[in-house]
Amino acid sequence: MVKRKMIYEGKAKQIFSTDQDDQVIVHFKDDATAFNGQKKGQITGKGKINNKISNFFFELLEEKGIKTHLIKELNERDSMVKKVDIILVEVVMRNIVAGSLSKRIGIEEGVVLDKPVLEYYYKDDNLGDPLINNFHIEVLELATGSDLEKINEMAFKINKILKEFLDKREIDLVDFKLEFGYTGDGEIVLADEISPDTCRFWDSNTKEKLDKDRFRRDLGDVESAYKEMLKRIIGKGEL
Ligand code: TMP
After folding, report:
1. Which of the listed residues 69, 154, 163, 237 has the most CB atoms within 10 Å of its CB?
2. 214 lines ligand 1 (CB under 6 A)
3. pLDDT tens across 111-144, in order?
4. How many angstroms separate the alpha carbon of residue 62 from the centre of ligand 1?
5. Domains of the chain and CATH, by start
């Protein structure tokens, strides 16, 4: 399959067209940004690790009945995926208080929530991805009420599957962000990525942060945290 031309460049990935209208290639970069692009940097080897981890999780989810955009991994940094119309809602699922939730509700990081909390953010960089609710989503026509129900159901199921998998590897799944899209035939599938860029992972014993918060908060050892997550997930820390 040939990469034709770049049709989109995001902060961490590039999207290329292919000779198939309904398929695109995702290329994972080492670039990292935070705070809506205000902080910029590189995490050496991140692209390869995120491609591998995300594909691993998407395959695990597919096995458990969650439809995803993934078709196949092509090489260390590239994957073939179904071309989708991304729904402009970022779905965040939280099991433990951290990050913006801690600030918003005034509860310290680390408090375990009695049940998972689902949030929606409007995917719009110019607005800084504001928190929105189901009424905003319907009024803005980002998704219908019934599509949102499907998305919620998928998000809770994904949380359960990932949490169960990571618990066994002594990782706390603190929170994570999901994106969904419509395929050509109108099916809702999980898209984007699930990686240390888009999740908070804490070592269950030491509570050490093993995700992009190390970059966001200048905690150091960013590369080794990504490698450690790769090791916990696929069993080896090198590719
Ligand atoms: P938050 O606490 O900053 O709102 O982040 C919640 C989760 O969403 C966390 O796992 C990191 C992830 N996330 C992204 O993937 N992209 C983003 O732009 C932001 C702000 C958070």
Report:
1. 69
2. no
3. 999 999 999 999 999 999 999 999 999 999 999 9
4. 23
5. 3-82 (3.30.200.20), 85-221 (3.30.470.20)
Whether the per-residue pLDDT at 1 is higher than 70: the answer is no
Which ligand 1 atom is nearest residue 34's CA? 18
Could you give the maximum distance between any two Cα atoms of the chain, in Å? Answer: 51
Mean pLDDT of the chain: 97
For residue 64, the CA-to-ligand 1 centroid distance in Å is 25
Q: Is the pLDDT assigned to residue 2 strictly greater than 80? A: no
- With a 6 A CB cut-off, is 175 part of the ligand 1 pocket? yes
Q: Ligand 1 in contact with 120 (CB < 6 A)?
A: no
198 lines ligand 1 (CB under 6 A): yes
User: Which residue lies with its CA nearest to atom 4 of ligand 1?
Assistant: 100
Over residues 79-100, the mean pLDDT reads 98
- Cα of 191 vs centre of ligand 1, distance in Å, is 16
Per-residue pLDDT band for 8 (boundaries 50, 70, 90) equals very high
Span 65-85, pLDDT tens digits: 999 999 999 999 999 999 999
